[in-house]
Write a structure and sequence with these properties.
This protein has about 190 residues and is of the alpha+beta class. It has two domains: about 50 residues; about 110 residues, Trna Endonuclease, Chain: A, domain 1 (3-Layer(aba) Sandwich). Helix content is about 45%, strand content about 15%. It is built from five helices and four strands; from the N terminus they run H-H-E-H-E-E-H-E-H. The chain has a four-stranded mixed beta sheet, sandwiched between helices. A hairpin with a 5-residue loop joins strand 2 and strand 3. Helix 2 packs across helix 5. It is elongated, with a radius of gyration of 32 Å. It starts with a helix and ends in a 16-residue tail after the last helix.
Length: about 190
Amino acid sequence: MPLAVVFVVVFVALLGLLVLIVTLLAVRIGAVLAVLKAKFLAGGTQEVWPFYAKKPLSKPEQVLYFRLAQALPEHIVLAQVQLSRLLEVKKGNNYQAWFNRINRMSADFVVCNKDFSIVAVIELDDATHQKEDRQMADAKKDKSLTSAGVHIVHWQAKSIPDIATIQSTVMPGITVKRDPPQAARP
């Protein structure tokens, strides 16, 4: 057999072996990637995530929530609602650009009618709202809500209003039925 023919046969055999090795490696790598993807999508079954449950409302927010619920029993009170759930961009405007202005902002409380139409947004401001960056964020939040015709109320966390103040502020012009004063008993 001529040397050239032997050379070609050996070359083709080595090339076939190389293709087989690359194919086996590709299959093995694909299997490893599939396992890694499954672990990632499943949350890394072996990995412990560093989360713990916490109360969604601070102590002052809890106090105001229960006062709002007591003062406005015919309404629905929602807490910590993203503005993107409350506001929509009017047609003809750049949705993404305007949406980005309110992205990650939330309302402390939203008072709704039974049909979930918005009556008012309540903001409970603590000492952090005195900082310049928070004031700018609050102004942007207020402007977005005002432009949508939403009534906004700001109260200070250090002086949470009583039930009568809540009723007269959130529902202006509506007379709230109150029980008549009881006669003093001897």
